[in-house]
Design brief:
The chain has one domain: Arc Repressor Mutant, subunit A, CATH 1.10.10. The relative contact order is 0.21. Helix 2 crosses helix 3 (about 35-45). It is mainly alpha-helical. The protein has helices at about 5-20, 25-30, 35-45; strands at about 55, 60-65.
Length: about 70
């Protein structure tokens, strides 16, 4: 079953908070999506949700620059 964008955003958010995303390719493989989808979702998280997402090479993970969580509930 194909994941919705909301489900992908929630999972990426969870992995970012755990500092366990891996690089873009690893994250794409984990989520069963293409790398382009990962980059598009990360762009959306940064621009629409104003989340301070960084990639830290020594951690091999995307992280939030400040502590936070994306909430997509009504």
């Amino acid at each position: 079953m194909k994941k919705t964008e909301k489900e992908i955003i929630e999972r990426i958010d969870q992995l970012i908070r755990l500092e366990a995303t891996g690089n873009a390719k690893e994250l794409a493989d984990r989520l069963c999506v293409c790398e382009r989808t990962v980059f598009n979702i990360l762009k959306k998280i940064r621009e629409e949700f104003k989340a301070p997402v960084l990639y830290i090479k020594c951690k091999n993970s995307y992280v939030y620059d400040i502590k936070g969580k994306i909430v997509l509930e009504f």
